[in-house]
Write a structure and sequence with these properties.
Elements: E1 7-17, E2 24-27, E3 31-56, E4 58-68, E5 75-78, E6 82-107, E7 114-124, E8 131-134, E9 138-162, E10 165-175, E11 182-185, E12 189-213, E13 221-231, E14 238-241, E15 245-252, E16 255-269, E17 272-282, E18 289-292
Parallel strand pairs: 1-4, 2-5, 3-6, 4-7, 5-8, 6-9, 7-10, 8-11, 9-12, 10-13, 11-14, 12-15, 12-16, 13-17, 14-18
Length: about 300
């Protein structure tokens, strides 16, 4: 149901996935982990008189990790090429039409609306005191797209539409995880993210009121893109890097709300938030030691 996120789609991929405990992982081969999830949601309502309402909701989640050590004090040695790609796409469309009365169309704006989350990692150490050594090329890419479109039409009466969308994309080449980790990297790392959240709300009333908006109380339509080459996370980490790191993050959040009334009152309000964050080396919290000799 819509109170539980509506339509759900989840995709997960792991090249090497260790269990809980202290593991020793060595890889010299090529690993390509990819995950794609798509969650479409369409709802419609038509009535001659009275109240017509349509609400749509969709959540798409994709996770991909080339080497996942899981929790424990792990030792990881990689010399092979690692690729992790994710795509999450959530779309919600609601259309409500009423001849005389109230027509309402929307999505789960109280919970961020249609939501897509894409997460890609080359190496994930997990919680624990990990030793990670990498000399292979790592390429991570995450794309999250959320589209919400809601249209209400009331010939005579009230037309109301509310639309919201949220997209989150995160890509990390090497993630040490929580704990005191030692990370040594001599392989090229590329991390790229794209978060695109689009929402449109249109309310039309010939005789009456047309009101459209989004979740302005929570930042409105939201796109968040984060790219890290090396991420130490919480703990006293030692990070040594001797290779080129490229980190790129792009966030886009177009939003439009339109209220239209021929004879009566119309109103529209909308807010959009786009955040992008790209870091070659992020040691995380605590007292860390970082030594970089590369570009």
């Amino acid at each position: 149901g819509i109170w539980d996120g509506g339509t759900h789609a989840t995709a997960s991929a792991r090249g090497i996935h260790a269990g809980m405990g202290d593991d020793t992982l060595a890889n010299d081969g090529e690993i390509d982990a990819g995950a794609t999830s798509v969650a479409p949601s369409i709802s419609g309502s038509l009535a001659v008189s009275g109240v017509a309402g349509a609400i749509s909701a969709g959540t798409a989640t994709s996770n991909a990790t080339a080497i996942d050590a899981n929790d424990g004090n792990d030792t990881i040695d990689n010399t092979g090429k690692l690729t992790a790609n994710t795509t999450a796409n959530a779309d919600g469309v609601s259309v409500s039409v009423m001849t005389a009365g109230v027509a309402l169309a929307g999505n789960t704006a109280w919970d961020g609306g249609v939501t897509s989350v894409a997460t890609s990692k080359g190496i994930d150490g997990g919680k624990g005191q990990d030793g990670i050594t990498n000399s292979g090329e790592i390429d991570t890419d995450a794309t999250a797209v959320s589209v919400g479109a809601n249209v209400s039409v009331a010939v005579a009466g009230l037309g109301g539409a509310i639309s919201a969308a949220k997209a989150q994309a995160k890509a990390t080449g090497i993630d040490g995880g929580e704990g005191d980790d030692t990370i040594t990297n001599t392989g090229k790392i590329t991390s790229t993210t794209l978060a695109n959240a689009d929402s449109l709300g249109v309310a039309v009333s010939v005789y009456g009121a047309g009101v459209a908006g989004n979740n302005t109380w929570d930042g409105g339509t939201t796109a968040d893109a984060r790219s890290n080459g090396i991420y130490g996370d919480i703990g006293q980490d030692v990070i040594n890097n001797g290779a080129e790191i490229l980190a790129k993050a792009t966030a886009v959040s177009p939003q439009a709300s339109v209220g239209f009334s021929v004879f009566g009152v119309s109103g529209a309000v909308s807010t959009a938030t786009a955040t992008s964050h790209a870091t070659a080396i992020d040691a995380g919290d605590d007292s860390d030691q970082v030594d970089n000799t590369a570009k």
